[in-house]
Design brief:
By secondary structure, the chain is mainly alpha-helical. It is about 45% helix and about 10% strand.
């Protein structure tokens, strides 16, 4: 299963529990990959009302290391299972 998403995407955040449940059920039969894309509603661009209400306000990453940090934070906050944990 290939999933594209970013933490600033309200739809992605809301679907994380469902994706996590699918992983728990099928991880032994299918590979699950998350590609962390550009921030959907980064600071300075169109901000969603859900993000404003939830206090989600990330600027677009300007370096690979910053994007890596955003991805790690997203995985941690949404409790997305990884191969290492």
């Amino acid at each position: 299963m290939l999933v594209l998403g970013s933490y600033t995407c309200p739809k992605f955040r809301s679907q994380a529990p469902i994706l996590n449940a699918l992983y728990e059920r099928y991880h032994d039969r299918a590979e699950f990959l998350l590609v962390y894309i550009r921030e959907a509603h980064g600071a300075g661009s169109w901000q969603s009302t859900i993000n404003q209400r939830e206090g989600v306000d990330l600027a677009d990453a300007t370096t690979f290391e910053q994007k890596r940090g955003y991805a790690a934070s997203c995985v941690r906050k949404l409790k997305i299972p990884t191969r290492h944990g």
